[in-house]
Amino acid sequence: MVLLEEFTGQRCINCPAAHEVVKGLKELYGEQLISVSIHAGTLAVKEGSMPNMIGLMQPEGDEYANKWGITTYPSGVVNRRSGKLSETDFAGVVREELKRSTPLSLQVDAKVENGQLVCHVDMMSSESINGKLQLWVTESHIIAMQMDKTLGLIKDYEHNHVYRACIKATEDQGFWGEDVAIKENIAMSFKRQIAVKDNWNPENLSVVAFVYNDKDGVYQVAECKVVPAAE
User: Fold this and answer.
1) 189 CB contacts (<8 Å, ≥6 apart)?
2) What is the pLDDT of residues 177-212, one digit of tens each?
3) CA distance 150 to 3
4) What is the pTM of this model?
5) CA nearest neighbour of 13 among 105, 134, 148, 137
6) Least crowded by CB within 10 Å, which of 46, 136, 146, 159?
7) CA–CA distance, 141 with 205 (Å, rounded to integer)
8) pLDDT tens across 65-98, in order?
9) Contact yes or no for 227/111 (Cβ under 8 A)
């Protein structure tokens, strides 16, 4: 499994072309490729910043972008190993990352209970790993504005796999995940949760879980659809 972090913005006229590249790669590789669209930079629209416009940028969007030196949009990072990429480089790097083996198996499931998005993560590795467990909420089928190089303003653009929030173990954790020390052949399980925001549609939510460190990048990534609360 490969993680593609796509950095984008609603006022970025070249970003729809990158969205199409990602869509094509998703169609080609299916569940092997997990993509997250992170709105960041001056061309992004901050959530809640404009009364008559749906903004998709979270405050930590710039924090993630700054980590990789993202200053031009669209850009991307694959498995936190590639460094900053243009959309024309996504395909080749994803293809090479899919050839890499990993000692880590990772599973995630999530559902909404009493206004909380509750997720469970299970992992086991054939070798010891020190890293961080990152948990993200994403949402698809969001209808909001997008600028396009050819079409100009598109008022009803469909945004997919949009970064919505980081699920934290503690309030003071920050946005880079929690430390995990995975022992060889010892199963580990985590239960984490976050309040469901009023502007999220639970039927379109997913949780992305991945383990990484700054030296080796992403060891493994998994994604699951969120099960909405029972009627």
Assistant:
1) 120, 121, 122, 123
2) 999 999 999 999 999 999 999 999 999 999 999 999
3) 29
4) 0.94
5) 148
6) 46
7) 9
8) 999 999 999 999 999 999 999 999 999 999 999 9
9) yes
- Mind listing the domains of the chain with CATH numbers? 2-227 (2.60.40.10)
Contact between 77 and 85 (Cβ < 8 Å): yes
Report d(CA 33, CA 12) in Å as an integer: 24
The dihedrals phi and psi of 165, each to the nearest 5 degrees, come to -170, 160
Of 147, 143, 171, the closest CA to residue 157 belongs to 143
For 210, the token pair is 């991945």
